[in-house]
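USER:
Before I trust my own judgement here, I would like a peer's view. Write it directly below this note and I will take it from there.

ASSISTANT:
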Amino acid sequence: MALGVFAIPHAYAQDAGADAAEESEGLVEEVIVTGVRKSLIASMDRKRDAVGVVDAITAEDFGDFPDTNLAEALQRIPGVSIDRFNGEGSQITVRGLGPEFNLTLLNGRSMPSAGGRSFDFLDVATEGVSAVEVYKTSRAGLPTGGIGATVNLLTSRPLNSPGMRGVITAKALHETSVPGSSDLNKWTPEVSGLYSQTFADDTFGVLISGSYSKRENREENASVAQWFENRDIGDQATIINNSQRTDGRTWYPQDAGYGFADNERERTNAQVVLQWAPTDTFTATLDYTYAETE
């Protein structure tokens, strides 16, 4: 009897273990990748699928660094350097070719510039851009004119992220280079918002976004116009000659100048996008972009 009592639970345990093993074999784990890893995968996919040499950064990359505009974000791409204006990134140089040799596109369309061929990235905030593609080689599907590179700015699209999305961000910048920056009025605002919604089984979408930023800073400089050799500067008995040259020659500046400039910049961006995709192979997009910098 004792043997029978112990044998029954033992057999039951074996049956339960076998059933659990069969159930575990039938389960399939699902892994959803989001966040930074998803952004890196998207950037690699753009490079892998592109024809030619292409570098790309996405919106997730913009948020990883304290970049105030697209030029400062683009400088993290190999071969891209930037020029600064009033302390902020303004224009880009690609592989040694200056801003006038690069072509900038907005969703595949040429971007206007205030003067010359170069584009001022100071006018565009990072909040309204979903990705940036830098084509370092020519392609038949791109407009001509980018000897150094062709930069394509891709803005957000409602059908790319179905459903409702709403984002509001607010920041304040404390610029210590401005005199009296300890006062509260020296805190400058940066505000942005985005609203996106899709309808009719995600076949029609609307997106509205906008941003406003203000910045104050000071630039200081010093310059010497010209140097003269062995100038007569008065009574030699009162002058200590600290020249370390073996020939004893000394040089004196004609004059020295010191200057400073207080700068104030306001940037306003806005965008409205309408999309309609009645079929999987047809998508119509109507967008309006507004950018103003004072």
The two ends are 96 Å apart (CA to CA).
